[in-house]
């Protein structure tokens, strides 16, 4: 278990048992692609793989981080908490969390020693950054006797990533890592920041197929999509209070189609219809209609492909190959797109041999095999 590894690593680096250990999971974006920054709805799944954090108080005002993978150590004074170079982001994530915990009222009269361990798959897009933020938040809060709610933990993790590490993100990653529950999906209203836990059928599991493809201009493409969404919302808000795409229906969009370019219209249509798909998926889960839920996942990918245009040939091929397999409810790109991974929601009867068949079909077309990762819906952040 990853928490045992974190304890052993701590003993190796610091010569003693840690006082507190906490874990937090990675996550899968289930459905709701690019809806978060448009104030919309999204669903995510906490997976049954985690990052564990081990901490203990020091007798001085130093903070010491040890990298469990490389053995590198970084030490600094509590009174000089500022972002370190990007190469030390493994320190910045927990350091930023500590800074914002202090701002939230945590009292610390001494520093701490810190290390972590992970069994998350590398490069699978399961948000290891949110996992270490949530695990750090829980561990440091317990270490210093500071009570914190789940919503506060999510806000602090996001603030650390946005304002300390410098990576823009919504609340999906931290929210799912914190609120996740075994055999469940986390539904988030990104406008009100309200959470709801929806049970999955007990025989469900997930496969991630990482294409390993990443577009060279991905940052610019993200920015362009964000700008197009904002432009659409501005046009739709003309003559009234400025609102987000979440607040509009297709009839509103079609009424002002002539005022926006084709690309802007397509981006807005994707977001508006994707929000509707998330709400439909929610209802399917309430009644256990897995067949309809799977169709929604496939429809989400098709919209990403044709309207939001953030898919690519590699992701499309993976989805098409999965459609041909038995025991697959649905599949779609998961995350920002322009490369990355496809998520497949499958029954317990889906086999490794089927995953290999998909992999071989992909290799025949692209000359390389995707990285495959099986997982289940697991629990969110917690202390030990």
Draw up the topology in text.
Layout: H1 2-14, E1 20-31, E2 41-57, E3 62-66, E4 73-77, H2 89-104, E5 112-118, H3 128-143, H4 150-165, H5 172-179, E6 184-189, E7 194-199, E8 204-214, H6 218-236, H7 250-255, H8 262-287, H9 290-308, H10 313-323, E9 328-334, E10 339-347, H11 352-366, E11 371-375, E12 382-383
Parallel strand pairs: 3-5
Antiparallel strand pairs: 1-2, 1-12, 2-5, 2-6, 3-4, 6-7, 8-10, 8-11, 9-10
Family: Belongs to the GHMP kinase family. GalK subfamily.
Domain GHMP kinase C-terminal: 283-362
EC number: 2.7.1.6
Provide a descriptive summary of the structure in words:
With 384 residues, this protein is an alpha+beta fold. The protein has two domains: 2-200, 2-Layer Sandwich (Ribosomal Protein S5, domain 2), CATH 3.30.230.10; 204-375, Alpha-Beta Plaits. The chain is built from eleven helices and twelve strands. Strands 1, 2, 3, 4, 5, 6, 7 and 12 form an eight-stranded mixed β-sheet that branches. A four-stranded antiparallel β-sheet has the order 9-10-8-11. The longest helix has 26 residues, at 262-287. The two termini are 12 Å apart. Residues 92-181 form the GHMP kinase N-terminal domain. It comes from Intestinicryptomonas porci. Pfam families: GalKase_gal_bdg, GHMP_kinases_C, GHMP_kinases_N. This is Galactokinase.
């Amino acid at each position: 278990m990853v928490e045992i590894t974190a304890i052993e690593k701590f003993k190796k680096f610091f010569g003693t048992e840690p006082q507190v250990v906490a874990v937090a999971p990675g996550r899968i974006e289930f459905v709701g692609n690019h809806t978060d920054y448009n104030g919309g709805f999204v669903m995510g799944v906490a997976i049954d793989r985690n990052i564990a954090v081990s901490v203990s108080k020091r007798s001085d005002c130093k903070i010491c981080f040890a990298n469990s993978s490389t053995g590198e150590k970084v030490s600094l004074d509590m009174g000089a908490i500022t972002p370190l170079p990007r190469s030390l982001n493994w320190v910045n994530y927990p350091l930023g969390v500590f800074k914002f915990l202090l701002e939230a009222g945590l009292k610390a009269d001494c520093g701490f020693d810190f290390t972590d361990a992970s069994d998350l798959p590398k490069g699978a897009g399961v948000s290891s950054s949110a996992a270490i933020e949530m695990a750090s938040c829980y561990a440091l809060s317990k270490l210093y006797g500071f009570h914190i709610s789940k919503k506060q933990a999510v806000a602090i993790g996001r603030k650390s990533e946005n304002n300390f590490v410098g990576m823009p993100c919504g609340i999906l990653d931290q929210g799912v890592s914190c609120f996740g529950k075994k055999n469940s999906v986390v539904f988030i209203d990104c406008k009100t920041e309200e959470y709801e836990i929806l049970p999955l059928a007990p025989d469900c599991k997930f496969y991630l197929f990482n294409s390993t493809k990443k577009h060279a201009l991905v940052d610019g493409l993200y920015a362009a999509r964000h700008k197009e969404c904002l432009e659409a919302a501005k046009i739709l808000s003309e003559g009234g209070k400025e609102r987000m795409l979440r607040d509009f229906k297709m009839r509103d969009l079609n009424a002002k189609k002539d005022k926006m370019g084709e690309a802007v219209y397509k981006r807005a249509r994707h977001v508006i219809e994707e929000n509707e798909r998330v709400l439909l998926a929610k209802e399917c889960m309430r009644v256990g209609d897995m067949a309809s839920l799977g169709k929604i996942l496939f429809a989400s990918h098709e919209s990403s492909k044709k309207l939001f245009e953030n898919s690519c040939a590699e992701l499309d091929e993976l989805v098409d190959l999965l459609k041909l397999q038995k025991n697959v409810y649905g599949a779609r790109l998961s995350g920002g797109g322009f490369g990355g991974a496809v998520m497949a929601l499958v029954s317990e009867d889906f086999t490794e041999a089927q995953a290999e068949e998909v992999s071989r079909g992909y290799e025949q077309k692209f000359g390389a095999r995707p990285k495959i990762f099986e997982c289940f819906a697991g629990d969110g952040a917690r202390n030990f």
